[in-house]
Amino acid sequence: MNIVREMAKKNQKKMPSHFEDIKFEEEDGGKQSPSLIDLVRTPQMRKNTFILMYNWFTSSVLYQGLIMHMGVAAGNMYLDFLYSALVEFPASFIIIVTIDRIGRRYPWAAANLVAGAACLVTALIPEDLHWLKVIAACIGRMGITMAFEMVCFVNTELYPTYIRNLGVMVCSSLCDIGGVIVPFIVYRLVEIWHDLPLIVFSKVLQRPKKSISVSKCQKYHTAEDGITLPGQSALGHQH
Fold first, then answer.
1. What's the CA gap between 75 and 71, in Å, rounded?
2. Rounded CA separation 156/166 (Å)
3. Are 155 and 172 within 8 A, CB to CB?
4. Alpha-carbon distance 82 to 90, whole Å?
5. What's the rounded Cα separation, in Å, for the pair 165 and 79?
6. Distance between CA atoms of 35 and 189, rounded to whole angstroms?
7. pTM for the full model?
8. Would you say the C-alpha torsion 226, 232, 233, 237 has a positive or negative sign?
9. pLDDT tens-digit map of 33-69
10. Which residue among 60, 71, 80, 164 is least packed, with the fewest CB closer than 10 Å?
């Protein structure tokens, strides 16, 4: 608070009266030790953690699964893989354009929806229309690329500072689990039906319907960093 007073003095401004009501935690009390319990301590935090874990898992399964399935698909493997890789450029561009204008939730949900629908459509297209299957698969990869990129930074925004690293570490660990499981999903199921993995991928993306409010969690970061604003309680009480 002394720094804020000095800033106001240098700028020849008077400090607002409500600034005096801002309370800071004691230095020794501010040293918090994060634990796994903190990730599920409140209902809102618990919901965010489970949804993020599921999104990391599904994004990994679908992203790597589409790449592996492209390798066992009929046609020119090298050209098909090149086409599917090129769609990551427009995926990144769409994120850059929409993320600050529309927000996180709707592009994130739309990306998952497009990826799941594209997988289902790809599985239903006849084998003799290989070019159309490749287009649908590329659309699916573009959708899951957007979802994968978005979950990476949305994860950091949804946790207060003192447990942010722990939250990202725990949730992203499901990505590794998905990477271990996906080869068994692809290479085992293609023996039954060539497009069966795509059906599974489209089903996996039917994630929990409860949504995450990024903006709601962002406004709590200040309180969790050791500052309690007037009329605002700590994060745990808000949830």
1. 9
2. 10
3. yes
4. 14
5. 39
6. 39
7. 0.70
8. negative
9. 778 888 888 888 888 899 999 999 999 999 999 888 8
10. 71
